[in-house]
Specification:
Ribosomal Protein S8, Chain: A, domain 1, alpha+beta, two-stranded antiparallel ribbon, 3 domains, Wheat Germ Agglutinin (Isolectin 2), domain 1
């Protein structure tokens, strides 16, 4: 698949201009552009530029509110509830993680729930903000139906990512950010758009048969990690980010690409807390924990035992020094959206 190289700074300015053209203010456009560029730099292309047109389409159809009146309800010094007023998810999540950090710094723990939001990109992007403030964090968000509950043929749960982050005593944070499906839905959409096959064993078609056809996978069911355990984790996230927050749940989150019948009303849950709540030497203990695991005997072909976040950090550093490669389809989207 042939790609075009674009300079990161120029690309970021173009994205900001596009979002402002569609009604976002400068700050909200900047927040959104930063999140999209970050996804490209860490190699999460299914969450990057490939979604830009979708966000703009939903703004045009008044399903994303470009001028939201976001309300933060203080429940206690530790707990806040945010009504995102159908804002673009990047903005709702940015406000939420900053509020969770503020609460944790004040009381030791921050718990922030969000309703009436939309797709916010990568959970790990927000986790990194908390970890940089020397906080541990857990983040949950639900998503449109893609995964069937264990034993069912119809999809209902989203790919519902689970995210955990902690300081490590080094410049590279521990960030576990994983969907509960065998493959990210954004990658299936990317494959479908570029006429590529998906791996075996990650999806079933609408008749319940295994498929490597991306289009058939989108019309069918994605498979969860670890069978019924993955389905259970998806259900857990649906409860935490949907039922608990006041957001849509139980299959009611609308698909941002295909369902224009109303706003998504996605729910998010952000939990942050200080590392020294129970022990004063957390940094020493986490360094010791990682060192011991890295010193374990390695299987053939493995040079280093990596903790979650290390590979992503390396990709970010490497890609930050290069131009961003985009497909001709994405380049065409950019040109169309700028007009």
């Amino acid at each position: 698949m042939e790609k075009v190289n674009l300079k990161t700074k120029i690309l970021k300015k173009e994205i900001i201009k596009i979002f402002k053209k569609f009604g976002l203010n400068n700050n909200h456009a900047l927040i959104s552009a930063n999140a999209i560029i970050n996804a490209e730099l860490v190699g999460a292309y299914g969450h990057g530029l490939s979604r830009l047109k979708m966000y703009c389409d939903r703004i045009s159809k008044k399903l994303i509110n470009p001028k939201p009146k976001i309300k933060i309800k203080k429940i206690s010094s530790s707990i806040s509830h945010i009504n995102a007023d159908d804002s673009i998810g990047f903005v709702a999540a940015d406000i939420a993680i900053k509020q969770a950090i503020k609460n944790a710094k004040k009381t030791g723990i921050g718990l922030v729930a969000v309703k009436n939001s939309g797709h916010y990109g990568l959970s790990g992007y927000y986790a990194e903000q908390a970890v940089k403030k020397n906080l541990i964090t857990m983040i949950y968000t639900n998503a449109p139906p893609a995964v069937a509950p264990h034993g069912a043929l119809k999809s209902l749960f989203g790919t519902n990512p689970i995210c955990f982050g902690t300081p490590t005593g080094s410049k590279i944070p521990f960030i576990l950010d994983t969907s509960i499906s065998m493959i990210n839905r954004g990658n299936i959409r990317l494959a479908e758009r570029n006429n590529k096959k998906i791996p075996k064993g990650v999806a079933l078609d609408k008749f319940g048969k295994p498929t490597t056809n991306a289009k058939k996978a989108l019309q069918g069911v994605q498979l969860p990690i670890a069978g019924f355990r993955g389905s259970g984790l998806a259900w857990m996230v649906d409860i935490l980010s949907g039922v608990l927050t006041g957001g849509n749940h139980a299959g009611k989150v609308k698909d941002p690409f295909d369902d224009f019948s109303g706003p998504q009303n996605i729910g998010h849950l952000f939990i942050t807390f200080k590392t020294n709540l129970f022990v004063k030497n957390y940094n020493t203990r986490i360094i010791d924990n990682i060192k011991k695991i890295k010193k374990l005997p390695k299987i053939k072909g493995v040079k280093e035992i990596m903790y979650p976040g290390q590979n992503k950090y390396k990709r970010f550093k490497m890609n930050s020094k290069k131009e961003i490669k985009v497909t001709h389809i994405t380049k065409k989207d950019l040109e169309t959206l700028k007009r």
